[in-house]
Design a protein that fits this description.
Length: 248
């Protein structure tokens, strides 16, 4: 049994006024029997980090640059994010793969840089609807996994998120059997490559996780948490998901 991790990805949402949700989250988090992480836009990391001091709440980032520093206008390095208070960084989210043309090779370089700077990486994989229809789901995910992870990954600093592209923001989710199939495949593949560390890495499910489906998803073996988008923006809803994952 792994300690579960429930992570909120705020994506490009959140202004100063939304920090009140972090106060509400902290107030309701006492009974949480899992790790809780919020990944706000970079503009809010430092303030959220300061608000989280003295609580169990973890703060993370949504991306970092592959290079350590240098002439990359508008980009943020792993060291900057850690300096602002991030302990985790999401990498290879499908929205970055689609919107910014991020390849597995780039995600792998980013992951190595982030790990070198002491961040825990949450590396995302997932098939499109067309790929699932063509029954290529496991091939696609296997290729993303092997291409996006550097060698020598350790369970303490590596988290994998399975996010089917077609389930993100759509209200549609795979069947429980489909989630279990992919997570079982992830576990076998990671164990073959990383041995015991692969056994221990946490595997999150993401894509339209809501209070109403969180408990049944959490109960699946090899589901060690969730990566939550829309339902992480409001503390009330996010806390219901956290509770569902705490009860398992
Ligand atoms: P939704 O929970 O809004 O479907 O988003 C999932 C996601 O992309 C989290 O990274």
């Amino acid at each position: 049994m792994h300690t579960k991790l429930v992570a909120g990805n705020w994506k490009m949402n959140g202004l100063s006024g939304d920090l009140v949700e972090i106060e509400r989250l902290k107030d309701g988090m006492d009974a949480a029997d899992c790790e809780v992480l919020v990944c706000p836009p970079a503009t809010l990391i430092a303030r959220m980090h300061d608000m989280a001091i003295g609580s169990e709440l973890l703060i993370g980032a949504q991306d970092c640059h592959a290079a350590l520093s240098g002439a990359h206008t508008g980009d943020l390095s792993a060291a900057m994010l850690a300096d602002a208070g991030a302990s985790h960084v999401i990498l290879g989210h499908s929205e970055r793969r689609a919107d910014h043309g991020e390849t597995d090779a780039l995600v792998r370089t980013k992951a190595q840089t982030a790990l070198d700077r002491g961040l825990t990486v949450i590396v995302c994989v997932g098939e499109t609807e067309a790929e699932r229809d063509e029954q290529r789901t496991l091939d696609v995910i296997g290729a993303q996994l092997s291409g996006s992870l550097p060698d020598g990954c350790l369970a303490a600093h590596t988290v994998i998120a399975y996010e089917p592209v077609w389930a993100i923001g759509t209200g549609r989710t795979p069947t429980l059997e489909q989630i279990a199939e992919v997570h079982g495949f992830l576990r076998r593949t990671l164990s073959e490559r990383f041995g015991n560390e692969g056994q221990e890495m946490r595997l999150l499910y993401g894509g339209s996780v809501k209070p109403g489906n969180a408990a049944e998803i959490s109960a699946l073996s090899d589901v060690d948490g969730a990566l939550v988008g829309g339902a992480s923006l409001k503390a009330d809803e996010f806390l219901q998901i956290i509770r569902a994952f705490s009860d398992q």
